[in-house]
């Protein structure tokens, strides 16, 4: 018996050594410096007008889990423009798209009204397919910042013309009037077609019906897209995923900026029901994009806003007590607004995927551009 147990002891010891020695082998190796993996693709989701209270509203009014909770890397950005403490969407969009702070109403130009190279122009020179999606007109300030250069956001006919000549490969939004009902009587749809775009002005298509097309455009409303509550459906989520699939074909790298435009409009209207419905629609879009990015593993997803709108708060419901005094009931939320315009509050920024740690901390909105270029190494050919 003794011999047997010694035999088994020796055998067990031998097996343990076999398992442990390779581990010591690992420890003996010189420590490796782990470099962050460069993202191949970048999705930038901008919820126009969404400060922390707007995002918080999803946690109180959405019946399903909130997708913002899926981010581990979170920062805050200062969003002031170059000329004012409170930014508009043009200056903040230009900061994201070009890395430069500029004056309110500027689209892709500096304080001196000089053209600034944007992310779409730079990425496309590195062989990246580029797309833009929005629930506003495609010529509105936020999307325009990524492909146009004009001294004022209100030059939407000129912005439409510049889109036709841009490096954008896929776009979806509203704004048909700026292409066909123009003061110069030109038809910019014809120009888009002659520049290689396939265009649908009725509805989004299935990916399989457009995947062989070179460039694809959807212009689905005369001006802004309808409100979610007026029948827009899941346009933002579907157009964003359709764009990702279209731009990703052939395994090319892609960049897409997708905007939930109407949280801002609801803030200007001081309409909390409108705001919450648009916020939840944007959160659903985040969910589908993160589902894609989790499977893909090479896509950096950045979610932020250009500024807060309406001075929105989730305060306690005002009631009157038995002495006739007004008090705030902490058991019920009453969304309220303190402004009709934008505010100066810092804006949350969320990141997922390769390079997402880069977005932690507190910094300015124009740094987002520099962080994207640093991580991807996208650069101009010249
Ligand atoms: Mg916008
Ligand atoms: Zn606004």
Topology:
Layout: H1 2-28, E1 41-47, H2 52-61, E2 73-78, H3 89-98, H4 119-125, E3 129-137, H5 141-144, H6 156-164, E4 170-174, H7 177-180, H8 188-194, E5 197-200, H9 207-210, E6 215-219, H10 235-248, E7 254-260, H11 262-268, H12 272-296, E8 299-304, E9 308-309, E10 313-320, E11 326-336, E12 342-343, E13 347-352, E14 361-364, H13 367-376
Parallel strand pairs: 1-7, 1-8, 2-14, 3-4, 3-7, 4-6, 5-6
Antiparallel strand pairs: 2-13, 8-13, 9-12, 10-11
Helix pairs in contact: 2-12, 6-8, 10-12, 11-12
The protein binds magnesium ion and zinc ion (ZN).
Q: Can you put this structure into words, describing what you see?
A:
With 382 residues, the protein is α/β, with parallel strands linked by helices. The protein has a single domain (41-309, 347-376), classed as 3-Layer(aba) Sandwich (Alkaline Phosphatase, subunit A), CATH 3.40.720. It is built from 13 helices and 14 strands. The strands form 3 sheets. Strands 5-6-4-3-7-1-8-13-2-14 form a 10-stranded mixed beta sheet, with helices on both faces. Helix 2 (52-61) crosses helix 12. The structure holds magnesium ion (MG) and zinc ion. Zinc ion binds next to helix 11.
């Amino acid at each position: 018996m003794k011999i047997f147990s010694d035999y088994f002891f020796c055998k067990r010891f031998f097996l343990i050594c076999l398992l442990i020695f390779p581990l010591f082998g690992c420890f003996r190796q010189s420590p490796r410096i782990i470099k962050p993996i460069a993202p191949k693709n970048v999705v930038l989701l901008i919820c126009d007008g969404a400060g922390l209270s707007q995002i918080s509203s999803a946690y109180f009014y959405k019946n399903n889990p909130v997708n913002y909770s899926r981010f581990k890397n979170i920062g805050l950005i200062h969003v002031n423009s170059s000329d004012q403490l409170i930014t508009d969407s043009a200056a903040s969009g230009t900061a994201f798209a070009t890395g430069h702070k500029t004056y309110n109403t500027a689209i892709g130009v500096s304080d001196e009204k000089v053209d600034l190279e944007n992310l779409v122009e730079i990425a496309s020179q590195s062989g990246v397919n580029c797309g833009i999606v929005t629930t506003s007109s495609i010529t509105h300030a936020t999307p325009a910042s990524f492909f146009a250069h004009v001294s004022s956001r209100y030059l939407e006919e000129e912005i439409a013309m510049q889109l036709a000549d841009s490096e954008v490969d896929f776009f979806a939004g509203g704004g048909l009037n700026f292409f066909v009902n123009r003061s110069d009587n030109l038809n910019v749809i014809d120009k888009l077609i002659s520049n290689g775009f396939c265009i649908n002005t009725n509805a989004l298509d299935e990916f399989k019906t457009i995947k062989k097309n070179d460039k694809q455009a959807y212009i689905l409303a005369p001006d802004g897209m309808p409100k979610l509550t007026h029948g827009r459906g899941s346009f933002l989520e579907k157009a964003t995923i359709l764009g990702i699939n279209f731009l990703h074909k052939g395994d090319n790298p892609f960049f897409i900026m997708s905007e939930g435009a109407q949280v801002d409009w609801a803030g200007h209207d001081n309409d909390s029901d409108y705001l919450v419905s648009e916020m939840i629609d944007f959160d659903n879009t985040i969910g589908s994009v993160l589902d894609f990015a989790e499977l893909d593993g090479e896509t950096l997803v950045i979610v932020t806003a250009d500024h807060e709108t309406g001075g929105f708060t989730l305060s306690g419901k005002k009631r009157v007590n038995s002495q006739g005094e007004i008090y705030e009931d902490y058991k019920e939320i009453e969304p309220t607004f303190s402004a009709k315009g934008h505010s100066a509050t810092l804006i949350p920024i969320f990141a997922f995927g390769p390079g997402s740690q880069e977005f932690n901390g507190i910094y300015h909105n124009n740094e987002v551009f520099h962080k994207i270029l640093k991580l991807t190494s996208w650069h101009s050919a010249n």
